[in-house]
Amino acid sequence: MKKQYEVIVSRRAERLLAGHVAFLARVSIPAARRLRAAFAEVLDALEDNPFQFPAEEDLDLPGNYRKALFAKRYQLIFCVEEDTVFVDAVLDCRMDNSRLF
Question: Does 3.30.2310.20 match the CATH number of domain 6-93?
Answer without folding.
Answer: yes
